[in-house]
Design a protein that fits this description.
Alpha-Beta Plaits, alpha+beta, Beta-Lactamase, eight-stranded mixed sheet, 12 helices
């Protein structure tokens, strides 16, 4: 492994010094857990050291199903803010030919004085920086311990721009800052992946240390259980690409409708979805149940729009049944010693699934339990008493009135 010299860590000995900035990073800065707060504090420390910066930022490549990279930048005028680049940005004009592409591909610094830009040769981003009053710009590789090349950018509005020795100091600064940004990044990436694969509620619990088998708590919630109609036949008749698109359209629209009303997906179970709307206080029961019903109606409405497009394309319609119930369950970490998953355990979830299974028999796509319906403000109609498989006794189920602007039967 290459050893860093003093110059590589602190820059040239003459002129302004990185030493106090490096000492602050190691003693105090490493305790800052947010990138915005870190850059705001760093900007102040660099100012005090004499760095003459008017813009400072970093960008980090990440592993996420939606986000390609994230970062944070500070300007003297607006302070610090975060940003994210979605997959596909690397194919845009904003990236192609940019200093960022140069640093990532060449793995070396890029420097451009902005006072003598050429319209055709220089990237549009450099012209934007000049329009903001910047006179000099530097992008440097910021290499993580894993070997991943990310980048740090600095710019100044000083009339004389940066001095040559400043570039050595900024290279040293990138070496000092990289370990702290890597720590922030690893936590953010872990949270992002956990959120994407197990949901925000469970990911927070995992990172808080609830990782042993049997860890869990009792929660009160409204439950949504929905299931696609005719999925077995569809899986046998549709090409894989079309089947996955149908599933993703169904999952995406249900998830978006639920999230907008405070719901969180707990599980995808084949072509079924289990969503929880947690009731944190007893006085919130009615509000949460009505939000869950509104989310269900929103999902049917958005799927109707998707189905309109699918009809025009000659594709099968997305049809699903949905049951809503309210009750208490244990939300716990269960499984084998080496393979664990958070799951909800209790009769409330089973009853929600059984109510959903009645939707085809009852001829309506949306059914509510009697317990759930007691909190609902919309007009409802009873469909009578039903036996539910695996649930003792007869149970009343209800649906929206025919004149309610909900899902059509």
């Amino acid at each position: 492994m290459r050893e860093l010299s003093r110059r590589g860590l602190l820059g040239p000995e003459d002129g302004w010094s990185l030493a106090p900035v490096g000492a602050w990073l190691m003693l105090e800065g490493r305790h800052i857990v947010g990138p915005v707060a870190l850059l705001e504090a760093l900007a102040g420390r660099l100012d005090a050291a004499g760095a003459r910066l008017d813009r400072l930022g970093f960008t980090v490549a990440t592993i996420h199903p939606q986000i390609l990279a994230w970062g944070c930048y500070w300007t003297r005028r607006d302070g610090a803010r975060e940003f994210a680049g979605r997959h596909g940005v690397q194919n845009s004009d904003a990236y192609r030919g940019s200093p960022v592409q140069f640093v990532q591909e060449q793995k070396r610094s890029f420097r451009r004085r902005l006072v003598d830009l050429e319209e055709e040769r220089d990237h549009a981003m450099l012209h934007e920086l000049r329009a903001e009053g910047m006179t000099d710009y530097v992008a440097l590789p910021m290499v993580f311990g894993s070997g991943t090349v990310n980048f740090l950018t600095v710019a100044t509005a000083a009339p004389e721009g940066f001095y040559d020795d400043d570039l050595d100091r900024f290279t040293a600064f990138a070496n000092l800052l990289a370990p702290l940004v890597e720590i922030l990044h690893v936590r953010r990436m872990t949270l992002g992946l956990l959120d994407a694969f197990v949901g925000p509620r469970i990911s927070a619990r995992i990172l808080d240390g609830q990782v042993k088998r049997g860890d869990g708590d009792r929660i009160e919630a409204a439950f949504w259980y929905s299931d696609l109609r005719g999925f077995t036949a569809l899986s046998e008749s549709l090409p894989a690409g079309q089947l996955l698109q149908l599933l993703n359209d169904y999952f995406e629209n249900c998830a978006a409708a639920a999230a907008a009303r405070g719901g969180e997906i707990l599980q995808f179970i084949g072509d079924a979805i289990l969503i929880v709307f947690e009731i944190r206080r007893p006085e919130d029961e009615a509000e949460v149940c009505n939000a869950a019903l509104d989310a269900a109606i929103d999902a049917f409405d958005s799927i109707a729009v998707v189905n309109h497009r699918r009809r025009r394309a000659g594709l099968p319609q997305i049809e699903f049944g949905l049951g809503l119930h309210v009750g208490s369950v244990t939300h716990a970490n269960v499984g084998s010693p080496n393979r664990l998953a958070f799951n909800v355990v209790g009769p409330a979830v089973n009853k929600t699934a059984r109510i959903q299974s009645l939707t085809k028999e009852a001829g309506v796509p949306l059914l509510l339990s009697e317990e759930f319906a007691a909190f609902i403000r919309r007009p409802l109609r009873s469909l009578g008493q039903f036996e539910l498989r695996g649930v003792a006794g007869a149970h009343a189920v209800l649906t929206l009135c025919n004149d309610d602007p909900g899902p059509a039967s």
